[in-house]
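Components:
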Amino acid sequence: MSFTPDIRLFSCHYTAQQSCTEGGSILRELNFPANITMTRLACTGKIEETDLLKAFEDGADGVYVVGCPLDGCHNVKGSQRAAKRVASVRKALVEMGVEQDRVRMYHVERGLHPEFIAVAEEMDALIRSLGPSPFCRKAA
Amino acid sequence: MIVAERKPLAEILKMVQDCKRILVLACKGCVTVCSAGGEREAEILASLVRLGLQKEGKEAEVNTASLVRQCDKEYIDSLDQYKGQYDAILSTACGVGVNFIANLRPAEHVYPALNTTFFGGSAEQGVWKEMCAGCGHCVLHFTGGLCPVARCAKSLMNGPCGGSVNGRCEINAETDCVWQMIYDRMGRLERQQELTASAPIRDWSSSGHGGPRKRVREDLTV
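Structure:
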């Protein structure tokens, strides 16, 4: 059975700034997966664990965060903080018996580099292999 | 402050598995400061409980609220506004808060979301260390302000024991030997001579071995 995952991306404004130019047409031209919904943040350090969990509550099959390299954040420690929060949610998923790779952190150079597309494709392939979110089971 | 940490999720989910309406109740006291049970942690826990129950095919309404403290009757009284709205309160306070709710709301279910661990302080961001055992008989004036009851693995009164190596505890090599610290500090303060006096056999009756302790200040009980 074909499965198109619902994937949510939270990205640093600086990392993703070129992705929104010309109405996002650049991303489409570069084959950025259409099933990934992007939310841009002023800094990934702004992200809270509840944002990541809420995405799962809203039906996401996978969630990932793209922020600056660990030593290259515009706000110094923003992407480090984001990585810690992603790690905390990964730990909580394990506690619930859910694959921790349903949530991931990536550190990518600022601007629209090939890596931005590559990690999107990697996440898409990973979530397709994991299948639908176990949180979407209907209430008995 | 009282330091605590969240219980394993499986344990929490088991407590509330049959509840349809759950109030995750944060405390703005110590557990907020130690990032275990404040409003932020309560929001995270509420989301985790919703997801955990959802995964088991169960649906529940899980909301959050907070009290200034859960260890004072006046604040517990404000729970009246939620009367009849929830099957259970999942408290993110320390054990004191859970006890207070259980005492004052005899007909309501209250569950602990945290394990209360110790009295301590924040050594650095994200790190808390035990500093006091609440033993009821403080000896800090003899030991340069460093507590051998809480910080020595053996609670020795005439330390150090023979097991410390290079200033580290034999029970846990990551832990500083507090008696080494006491000795060094008393030396810096030119009070090392005081350590030659033997501490007498300790009376532990103040430390809770006689059952729950209680303090009354008559001048305040109007």
